[in-house]
Protein: Endonuclease/Exonuclease/phosphatase family protein
Organism: Mangrovibacterium diazotrophicum
Amino acid sequence: MKKNWLIFVLVLFVVSCQSSKDLKHITVASYNVENLFDTEDDPHINDNEFLPGSDKKWTTERYERKLNDIARVLHEISPDDLPEIIGLAEIENQKVLEDLVKTEALAPGNYKIAHQDSPDKRGIDVALLYRPDAFKLISFEAIPVDPGFATRDILHVYGQFKKEEFHFFVNHWPSRIGGLEKSEPNRVVAAETLKKKVDSILAENPDANIVVMGDMNDEPQNKSLQEVLGAGSPDSNSELVNLMMPLALEKKGTYNYRGTWNMLDNLVISSGLLDAKGYKVTPPTGFIFSEPWMEYTNKDGEISPNRTYGGPNYYGGVSDHFPVYFEMEK
């Protein structure tokens, strides 16, 4: 009987070791995947341009290629160990997320999904993928943003790495359509909405671990991020710091508009994640991920993200954005 009990304990120990993950190193990635739509008509949203019979001729073959290309990008960000957390922008629904995590490149991560449909008229949402062997989900909620029209919610995901609590906010703020200055108030509303929630968390726990990610359609130096949200550079004394600020100041970016790089994809963290307590972002910066197969080079040798579409023209690229990421160690 005693021998059987020892064997049982040993089996439990082995299973525990195999199912739990060494969380000394964590990778957090954020990616605007440029209109990841399925090929099925949803009568509740305006998804007509991404159907097989549309001008874009969005077929199953093109959809599956895009899924596999996105998965390849995310895998190559951390080839030795898939990212523990992935924030996504411009996804249509739960189905495309389920299809994405089943791809050959991502399936080993056994990703789970935090997602809620937003009021955006085109039906595009944000979502968070997490590895359940690393991150324990406690709750998530969609925070409405109201600049006077229907736009994407902010997704707030709350959970733990080894009992250390984290708040993740996935964003896709209103676009720059109409011009930077004219559209800026819409993004200021998004920043104010986020700031209110972040402040409430920090008021309750000044040491809370907060990560803000996504396509803000603004750069780190713009009003919405630097003034309203209050995200300074990593070497500042700000309560929130933008890990992409140093690269933005070097004129690097994740999105190329008519030959000019814009740092529209941001990674903002609470300053406590730069100290030596618990998890620490190291090095204290974000990174832009790109490989030649993800890029387009024009006749002048200028590089930009190789997009999937330009208007109705199919280019076969992955996305019109490059992903960003950072790493933490404990």
User: Anything to note?
Assistant: Confidence is low (pLDDT under 50) at residues 6-19. Residues 22-329 form a domain with the Deoxyribonuclease I; Chain A fold (CATH 3.60.10.10). The two ends are 41 Å apart (CA to CA).
